[in-house]
Amino acid sequence: MxxxxxxxxxxxxxxxxxEGRVYTVTGGDWDLVLGGDLHGEERLxxxxxxxxxxxxxxxxxxxxxxGETVTKARVAIxxxxxxxxxxxxxxxxxxxxTFVTRMDYLSPLFNEAxxxxxxxxxLGIEVPQRARTIRVLVMEINRIASHLVGLxxxxxxxxxxxxxxxxxxxxxxxxxxxxxxxxxxxxxxxIRPGGLAQDLPEGAVEHIREFLEVMPKxxxxxxxxxTGQPIWQRRLKDVGYLDVTGCLALGVTGPxxxxxxxxxxxxxxxxxxxYETYDFEVPTADTADAWGRYLVRMAEINExxxxxxxxxxxxxxxxxMVEDKKIAWPAQLSLGPDGMxxxxxxxxxxxxxxxxxxxxxxxxxxxxxxxxxxxxxVPIESPRGELGYHVVSDGSTRPWRVHVRDPSxxxxxxxxxxxxxxxxADVIAAIASIDPVMGGVDR
Length: 443
Hints:
This protein has 443 residues and is α+β, with helices and mostly antiparallel strands.
């Protein structure tokens, strides 16, 4: 057994074993950072995160400081280790929904929708109209909940604790509705390939309409609390600047891009689920800073309220799952509020009347359905920007590959551009204005 070292990389070595070549890589980044030429200036290199309360989870920032001015910012990710993309390769297509919903855990229904739309595109099927409308309905409720968390956590980090308590108060209203509809407050696995896990329960429509009556006043309260507040303005205006050119160069999408003035929203430019038939605007700002991103998200909450009302108005009776029995699961199940449980009629049928139905049910649940070989890319507009699913099938009952273009991962590239040259206190506001979710970054 021999050991060799790569001359180009003194930190990487390899050795031959019976299993093949094994590589050993040791860190050198910190030595390189500290070993740089300081040009005679006093410089401090500090870690911010991954345990820092203002880094939105387990994000780590390596900051070069001269006094309180940030001269260089590097982003280090990889502390959550969820491994969701790889896990989907070892589950059937329906079970994959329970994994992808945990990526961006503040907007789980968007992950479910994009994944299922990709599977449906491979299958060449169209989901029923009622299922499409309910998907829009629950996603827009989820968009409001996600923006409220972005507002609440950003307010907490800047010292506006009332923004935090109020933001989570309104988010509870959204989660109450999603729990009533799906059975769970987060990580719902409600959107399934071919449709939905279950129809809207009795009383849900009335409760959503009550929410629509209350929420506009609450949004107005946020503007009275924050928008005219001098301290809030000074902490956000001209902070985290990134113009359209910078956004396009870095692939940044979502409210960050729209705050720079470009009305790029996939619901408008590449519509899906019938969004082209809804009446709504794409809010923009021309400030290209944290202030503009705050205003865009607040305006998007109002637009989502309009979309929810329209979705309720166009709900028509009908199925919420495709009729193809080789795909539809759990089309024949009647799910309780906990998201589990079979209808007694279906249990009676498969257990006492039809051996063929029992065999089919068993294979569909344990093995799953086959998806024709091929690959697709399906993007949708999540609360943070373009969320795209590249799904590859080899014709089996499991995905061959699921790769996600998560907007938080891409948008975090903008951290250095937003932070360098500014104060260390403004790094907090810049990160908050990106609104990253590390579950989607380190997936």
